[in-house]
Design a protein that fits this description.
two-stranded antiparallel ribbon; 2 strands
Length: about 100
């Protein structure tokens, strides 16, 4: 695997990570999204410390993942059903 070492910063804290070269852009974008969301929560909500901000950010992203997984599962199942229906129509000699 082609790995590179990158530096990212989360909550003004630097992290050195080894990532696949193909994933570098995604990791940097994810770090940027996390930092943006943390700034949003810091501006709009009361908090005691950085852990509160990280917790709210983690919850928001985890909720998004759960929603997307649910939508993907529904689409996969619905698409599979529709394809089976089309296949049945195309295979039917009386049609």
């Amino acid at each position: 695997m082609d790995e590179i070492t990158i530096n990212i910063t989360l909550l003004d804290r630097p992290f050195r990570l080894a990532v696949a070269r193909a994933d570098e852009e995604r990791v940097r974008k994810a770090a940027s999204l996390i930092n943006e969301r943390i700034k949003f929560y810091a501006k709009h909500y009361a908090y005691k410390d950085a852990q509160d901000l990280l917790s709210m950010t983690a919850l928001q992203f985890a909720t998004s993942v759960v929603k997307m997984e649910s939508e993907l599962t529904f689409k996969d199942q619905d698409l599979g059903r529709k394809l089976n229906e089309l296949n049945a129509l195309l295979s039917d000699p009386t049609a």
